[in-house]
């Protein structure tokens, strides 16, 4: 983000208390991962749970397998059975996970040589014999220096939504798939309507070079696979103390093994290798150049500060120059130390950057060892920020401190936020030439008000959606 965003934070704080260029937030963002959608992270969300009685918990959600056409049978969209699906939490600012929630999947496939069908009758329950393909998962809690703890030994994922005739009450299936966790919290593995919203024609030289190409939610009608977990804040905070150490950094990642191929068969071999990663939206998409995207996906955040070519693109990003060339809006001066603070250190007075405000850096945690802190690209969340009664889609830019980049809620309009702050917007003073943004201000399907908040998956053909 930008100096303008820093101005927005600082201004509101003084007034009083109170994530080739890829597609979408992280859909097909790098050459290699575009060819392997089963392990392609699309979006990460981290926010204090907003519903009544849940304010002491945080919801972490990560999505995979972008652009799922609902009618994509007969195999639909299973999670990969040879992968680790991880949501990582860094509570000390080391760029390394202090805690990882890891899902691994196994297939129960009873079709054999008898049928091509995913289900051979109506599916009213996850255990119905009419559901011929289902996925089981194991969820582990992995803490540095400790043995993994199994939270769910044999969970069942909600299947892909075949349609109303096959699965007349998909909400019931998702409720059955939602598992309570020991020590508090819950989790679910499910298909969902893609919660991200934008007009992807931003990549046609920023909406047709004259804003004529805007206003169509490109993701309307498409589904994703969602892993979501809601846990007490004490589980995530350093030393279990969310009052003294409220800030965490979050990212999702996927590890996969090499495939040995033979006629009609593929066998996973060797060690697990990280192939995808996502923290803040839009970093790998519009900051990292194409030739570095695959390498970025393979790096742990702890190594980000050692990558001079990536840091150089943060300090001197391409997008403002593109906007200047097309619309004549001057690009802010470089080097962009403000971007470095937002993406790599979090915003805090102790970061000694241009954004002299305490918002969401682990440097605000009272018990960390400052000597271990390193700049790392993560989605940072200050868990002590109160839930906003009426969330503003522009987040911090409009004075809503619970919004992006302080974590990310599903309704945060990260595309419009990024475009505005890149061009110098301040609270109440948007850049009028771009005030309409992409013309898409919310999702195709309304979010839920309770966990897991994502909408139920679409069932109609995409070319009929909306």
Task: Describe the protein in words.
Strand 5 and strand 6 (149-156) form a beta hairpin. Helices cover 18% and strands 24% of the residues. The protein has one domain (3-464). It is of the alpha+beta class and 466 residues long. It is globular, with a radius of gyration of 22 Å.
State the gist of this model.
The protein has eleven helices and twelve strands.
Distance between the termini: 32 Å
**SSE arrangement, N to C:** HHEEEEEEHEEHEHEEHHHHHEH
Number of domains: 1
What's the overall average pLDDT, rounded?
87
The DSSP helix count reads 11
Estimated structural class: alpha+beta
Helix content: 10-25%
Task: Give unreliable regions as ranges.
Answer: 1-25
How much of the sequence is in beta strands?
15-25%
Largest sheet: 7 strands, antiparallel
- From the spread of the alpha carbons, the general shape counts as globular
- Let me know the number of strands: 12
Alpha-carbon Rg, integer? 22 Å
Write the layout of secondary structure elements.
Layout: H1 3-15, H2 31-34, E1 41-48, E2 57-68, E3 83-90, E4 99-109, E5 133-143, E6 149-156, H3 170-177, E7 179-180, E8 186-193, H4 205-211, E9 223-232, H5 233-236, E10 247-262, E11 265-278, H6 283-286, H7 290-298, H8 308-315, H9 319-327, H10 337-345, E12 379-382, H11 414-422
Characteristic terms for this protein:
466 residues, alpha+beta, seven-stranded antiparallel beta sheet, five-stranded antiparallel beta sheet, 11 helices, 12 strands, 24% strand, disordered N terminus
């Amino acid at each position: 983000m930008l100096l303008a965003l820093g101005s927005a934070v600082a201004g509101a704080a003084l007034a009083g208390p109170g994530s080739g260029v890829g597609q979408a937030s992280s859909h097909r963002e790098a050459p290699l991962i575009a060819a392997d959608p089963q392990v392609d992270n699309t979006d990460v969300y981290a926010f204090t749970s907003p519903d009544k009685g849940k304010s002491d918990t945080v919801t972490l959600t990560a999505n995979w397998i972008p652009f799922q056409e609902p009618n994509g049978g007969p195999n639909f969209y299973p999670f990969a059975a040879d992968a680790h699906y991880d949501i990582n939490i860094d509570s000390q600012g080391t760029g390394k996970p202090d805690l990882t929630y890891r899902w691994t999947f196994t297939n129960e496939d009873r079709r054999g040589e008898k049928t091509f069908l995913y289900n051979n009758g109506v599916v009213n329950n996850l255990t119905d014999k009419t559901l011929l393909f289902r996925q089981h998962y194991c969820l582990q809690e992995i803490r540095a220096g400790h043995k993994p703890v199994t939270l769910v030994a044999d969970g069942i994922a909600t299947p892909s939504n075949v349609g109303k005739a096959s699965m007349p009450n998909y909400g019931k299936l998702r409720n059955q798939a939602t598992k309570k966790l020991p020590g508090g919290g819950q989790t679910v593995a499910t298909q969902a309507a893609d919660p991200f919203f934008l007009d992807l024609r931003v990549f046609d030289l920023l909406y047709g070079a004259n804003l004529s190409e805007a206003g169509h939610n490109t993701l309307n009608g498409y589904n994703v696979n969602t892993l979501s977990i809601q846990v007490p804040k004490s589980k995530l905070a350093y030393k279990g103390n969310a009052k003294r150490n409220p800030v965490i950094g979050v990212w999702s990642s996927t590890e996969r093994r090499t495939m040995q191929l033979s006629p009609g068969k593929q066998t996973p071999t060797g060690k697990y290798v990280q192939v995808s990663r996502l923290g803040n939206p839009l970093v790998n998409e519009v900051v990292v150049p194409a030739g570095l995207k695959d390498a970025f996906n393979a790096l742990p955040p702890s190594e980000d500060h050692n990558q001079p070519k990536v840091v150089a693109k943060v300090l001197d990003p391409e997008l403002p120059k593109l906007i200047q060339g097309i619309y004549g809006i001057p690009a802010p001066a470089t080097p962009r130390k403000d971007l470095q603070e937002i993406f790599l250190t979090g915003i805090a007075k102790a970061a000694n950057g241009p954004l002299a405000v305490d918002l969401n850096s682990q440097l605000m945690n009272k018990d960390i060892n400052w000597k271990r802190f390193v700049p790392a690209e993560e989605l940072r969340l200050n868990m002590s920020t109160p839930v906003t009664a009426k969330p503003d889609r522009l987040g911090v830019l409009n004075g809503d401190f619970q919004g992006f980049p302080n974590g990310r809620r599903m309704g945060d309009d990260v595309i419009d936020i990024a475009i505005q702050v890149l061009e110098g917007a301040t609270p109440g003073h948007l850049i009028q030439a771009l005030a309409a943004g992409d013309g898409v201000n919310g999702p195709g399907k309304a979010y839920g008000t309770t966990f897991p908040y994502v909408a139920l998956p679409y069932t109609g053909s995409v070319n009929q959606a909306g």
